[in-house]
Amino acid sequence: xxxxxxxxxxxxxxxxxxxxxxxxxxxxxxxxxxxxxxxxxxxxxxxxxxxxxxxxxxxxxxxxxxxxxxxxxxxxxxxxxxxxxxxxxxxxxxxxxxxxxxxxxxxxxxxxxxxxxxxxxxxxxxxxxxxxxxxxxxxxxxxxxxxxxxxxxxxxxxxxxxxxxxxxxxxxxxxxxxxxxxxxxxxxxxxxxxxxxxxxxxxxxxxxxxxxxxxxxxxxxxxxxxxxxxxxxxxxxxxxxxxxxxxx
Length: 248
What we know:
Layout: H1 3-9, E1 17-23, E2 30-37, H2 46-53, H3 57-73, H4 76-97, E3 100-104, H5 109-118, H6 129-135, E4 139-143, H7 147-159, H8 167-185, E5 189-195, H9 200-207, E6 214-221, H10 229-232, E7 240-243
Parallel strand pairs: 2-5, 2-6, 3-4, 3-5
Antiparallel strand pairs: 1-6, 1-7
Helix pairs in contact: 2-3, 3-7, 4-6, 7-8, 8-9
């Protein structure tokens, strides 16, 4: 099936989705489906705090304090609503296509191995759409990050310095690593859950210069209303743009 056919055949109306955007890159051999998400920022755990404190106690204490403030600011109610949307989106896609692999933000290969062992014992928990669907046998969770890229990003967030100055750590390095994982598996359609602030249109423009090219489908859940600034600049480049009311 051609990439154009995959894009055109992909559903325009999905329960839980407010918007589906499709972008065709010439000579693409695969399609990335980015499901935009919101998630809470966790407080630094005690184990990591102790590890950093061995060499720099002042830095460790500052990062711990900042991470607590960021965690307290998170709008957990909104996060839960977005995760409910993502559950509806992925549930629909799995019903349409069977069990699908979902590359998941924050999940490293080590975490995936742990969850695979724990699957029979997992309990349903609102706010963890991918875990609940994995528990129900509707998706497989795949790693989208390494411990190094994820920890570097979290440390930069906890330092509470300019996102622009730390863009490569928080955004670029993690996006390119997720594309690396996806490319290694050589799937025609790859599903990815990653934060709404990440712009995979521009990530793919960079990736496609040197690697096997991918086109993009971007799914925005009903309860995500903002678009990051770079996304607004690309609207005229879309192959197709669908706007819809929630169906959930």
